[in-house]
Design a protein that fits this description.
This protein is 62% helix and 8% strand. By secondary structure, it is α+β, with helices and mostly antiparallel strands. The radius of gyration is 29 Å and the shape is flat. The two termini are 31 Å apart.
Length: 449
């Protein structure tokens, strides 16, 4: 995958997940709006218009004071409600979902609207002047302040609805599922360099003594590998005629001092080039879904596991998560998985990357749910339904082997976890449906060949 501005993209993502950026922008907008309105009040007289505030200085002060005090109280209340919603989300869906709520721009805009209205009213209030020799009443500015108060009331009504919606399981699951679909569209098919020719062996460009002769570039700190600037890595490899083997893929935790990338031949490496390569790897405190396809998958799995835990015993939420996981995998199997071997325009091997596999993704999606749902017939049957559905979207024999392996494990686990013979029989019937779907697709593939 080509990413021209990986650091800028990560920085922008960090801004959007903060609770100060958008409110700060709206607060600055309130200051600019106050300056514009005061300029118009000094230059233009609009008292003849029926909708413009025409009261005296004392009335203007009272109105703006009420708006400012009200907005401060509403902003504090909204912030408190938001914190409570975040606490509920963390306890119900897991701490890793907290970032999804922090990224909710609606809450940020709502909080920014209240703060902006408060700042605007306060700034206009200080300009009202009533002395013996002159009097200045910013009629237009006060009118705009009243309009902002009305807008804030409408925003408050929306906030009450929104706050009660974002903590619903269906809303959270749908949001994570959309993140998964976006990640699939963004990462598959991944293209860095040129795919190798059909008659070229993948390992043809690697020296037999690569591991001994390559120079290891080590991680300079601990953290999750959030992103790799693939374009920069490829350009460096081409410019200096190097072969780079990347030891980690985005989403993995990197320990300080471990080998992050191997560079061959080692005699071409110097401190400047080492620093350039290090800058292509972005480490952070937490995982993100920008280049990590497994992260949204694991978020759905975490919701499913919490729902099926003995303390909650909510298999319906788990089934919803399985539906979303199956939809994401159906989307994924129609995409081309990138090769770990990346070639340049001249068919020269330049980069060996750690790539995700279909087997690894399916394991991430189903293993833990399968292990924790052996005693639940409904969830077990739904897992088999999901596998049968995924099987209809792919004719890849390797995909079929992975899906059948999981179906076999689910069917075997049901014998140990389900005490009722009728439940085991229902699972067996659904298992037979999966095998039939897999065999049917296999026959179709053989006919195509």
């Amino acid at each position: 995958m080509w990413m021209k501005n990986v650091k800028l993209s990560n920085f922008w993502d960090a801004l959007l997940t903060s609770y100060w950026f958008l409110p700060g922008i709206l607060a600055l907008g309130a200051v600019i709006l106050e300056l514009i309105m005061l300029f118009l009040d000094h230059r233009v007289s609009l008292e003849h218009l029926g909708w413009i505030f025409t009261g005296d200085a004392e009335g203007a002060r009272e109105i703006l004071s009420v708006i400012a005090v009200s907005m401060a109280s509403v902003a504090a209340t909204a912030f408190s409600i938001t914190i409570v919603a975040l606490q509920l989300a963390t306890s119900n869906f897991g701490p890793r979902l907290l970032r999804n709520f922090m990224r909710d721009t609606s809450n940020q805009l709502i909080l920014g609207t209240f703060i902006g209205t408060f700042i605007y009213s306060l700034l206009v209030l200080r300009t009202i002047d009533k002395s013996d020799d002159q009097e200045f009443i910013p009629h237009l500015s006060v009118t705009v302040g009243i309009l902002l108060a009305v807008i804030s009331i409408a925003v408050l009504i929306y906030f009450i609805h929104h706050a009660s919606t974002i903590i619903q399981a269906s809303h959270v699951i749908q949001g994570v599922s959309e993140d998964l679909d976006k990640a699939i569209d963004r990462l598959f098919p991944e293209k860095v360099g040129v795919n190798p020719p059909a008659n070229q062996l993948h390992l043809g460009g690697i020296s037999p003594d690569f591991q001994w002769q390559a120079y290891p570039i080590k991680a300079h700190r601990n953290g999750y590998l959030q992103a790799i600037n693939d374009e920069k890595i490829m350009n460096i490899a081409q410019k200096y005629n190097l072969l780079l083997q990347i030891k980690y893929r985005p989403g993995k935790f990197v320990v300080k001092g471990c080998e992050l990338v191997m560079v061959w031949p080692r005699e071409r490496i110097n401190k400047k080039l080492t620093h350039k390569i290090e800058k292509a790897f972005i480490l952070g405190k937490e995982r993100t879904e920008r280049q990590d396809i497994e992260f949204p998958l694991q978020e759905l799995v975490e919701i499913a596991l919490r729902a099926i835990s003995p303390g909650k015993n909510d298999p319906f939420t788990t089934i919803r998560c399985i539906d979303r996981l199956s939809a994401g995998l159906c989307h994924l199997v129609q995409r081309q998985f990138p090769s770990p071997y990346r070639y340049d325009d001249h068919n020269q091997l330049r980069v060996i990357a750690k790539s995700v596999t279909f087997e690894g993704i399916v394991d991430q999606a189903f293993n833990q749910i399968r292990q924790d749902s052996r005693t639940n017939a409904a969830v077990t049957i739904h897992l088999l339904k999901a596998i049968a559905l995924i099987a209809t979207y792919t004719q890849n024999p390797q995909h079929h082997e992975v899906l059948q392996r999981h179906a076999d494990m689910i069917e075997c686990g049901s014998h140990q976890g389900l005490p009722e013979s009728q439940d085991r029989q229902d699972v067996q019937e659904k298992y037979n449906t999966v095998i039939q779907a897999l065999n049917q697709n296999h026959e179709i593939e053989m006919l195509r060949r």
